[in-house]
Write a structure and sequence with these properties.
The chain has eleven helices and 14 strands. It is of the alpha/beta class. About 35% of the residues lie in helices and about 20% in strands. The protein has helices at about 20-35, 50-55, 65-70, 100-110, 130-140, 155-160, 175-185, 210-220, 235-240, 255-260, 270-290; strands spanning about 5, 35-40, 75-80, 85, 90-95, 115-120, 125-130, 145-150, 165-170, 190-195, 200-205, 225-230, 245, 260. The chain is globular, with a radius of gyration of 19 Å.
């Protein structure tokens, strides 16, 4: 039976406009009420979790929705697996950071490449420059509580008391991307996930799968008791450590090929459908066991 459900956020629980629907959040609540440990597993930093999930869990619960979210989840895999946080105990359970010296060296080499830089440090999303920060707040909307503006990312990293969870570089031309790829080739301890407009850079020791495996071991949960839902290349590592693997209809082809089944797209509430399919299977198994007894 499934005891832990790891769910990606963007492209999975969130639709194409970065919204989580009433039906999707209701399905997650039903799973939590059924005793399944819900674990958001995201490329976002902790304080940029979707506000509808964060309210009542990460933040206060004064609203009606916040009150409904109490107990929805306790653990979060953030920054592509760089960190696992127990939000109830306010404690980091696992981390795989970019060493400060490595982050500084990479930022130094990227100076002059016409890139917008961002970082995840101490569960916050830092953006260099006011224009980039304003754009980030517009994109994230109510999810932007964790966004902060810094004047110089290199100096911020050097002066920070914390290591870096992730670096991001936004590029605007193919030439800028190629230069960035060549630069990253000089740092064998780092890996990157690319979209059409930016790269997420993190430690080679960090992945959603490694973080999920560490959390499951801590909770005494076996691989067969883990399910995960995702859409992106960075979700492949979760598939490798899960007993039940579900790909979104909008997932990239490589993930679909590894999945046990493919649900609908994120614009058709595929995550909610997958969660309820898991719950239906769990109820069937429970009834079957009761009948045997």
């Amino acid at each position: 039976m499934i005891k832990l459900l790891a769910v990606d956020m963007d492209g999975t629980c969130l639709d194409g406009r970065s919204r989580i629907t009433d039906n999707t959040i209701k399905a997650l609540r039903e799973a939590a009420q059924a005793g399944i440990t819900i674990v958001p597993a995201t490329g976002r930093n902790l304080f940029c979790l979707p506000h509808r999930l964060a309210e009542g869990t990460l933040y206060g619960s004064r609203s009606a929705e916040g009150r409904k979210n109490r107990g929805l989840f306790r653990y979060v895999i953030s920054s592509n697996g760089a960190r696992v946080v127990d939000i109830q105990e306010k404690k980091t359970l696992f981390q795989a950071m970019i060493p400060k010296e490595t982050a500084a060296a990479l930022l130094e080499r990227c100076r002059g490449q016409r890139l917008i830089t961002a970082s995840h440090i101490s569960n916050r999303y830092l953006l260099q420059g006011r224009t980039a920060t304003l754009a980030g707040r517009l994109v994230y909307g109510r999810d932007a509580k964790g966004i902060y503006c810094v004047r110089d990312m290199l100096q911020t990293v050097k002066m920070s008391a914390f290591q870096t969870e992730e670096l991001q570089f936004y590029f605007f031309t193919h030439q800028s991307r190629r230069r960035l790829e060549n630069t990253l080739g000089l740092f064998p301890g780092l890996t990157a996930a690319y979209t059409s407009v930016y790269a997420e850079v993190y430690s080679r020791q960090a992945s959603k799968g490694r973080a999920l495996e560490a959390l499951a071991k801590r909770l005494g949960i076996t691989r067969e008791e883990i399910a995960c839902i995702g859409d992106g290349e960075n979700d492949l590592s979760m598939f490798a450590v899960s007993g039940l693997k579900i790909a979104m209809g909008n997932a990239f082809e490589g993930l679909k090929q590894q999945a046990d089944y493919v649900t609908s797209s994120n614009n058709r509430e595929g995550a909610a459908k997958a969660v309820r399919r898991i719950l239906d299977a769990e109820r069937f198994v429970s009834r079957f066991r009761c009948a045997e007894e």
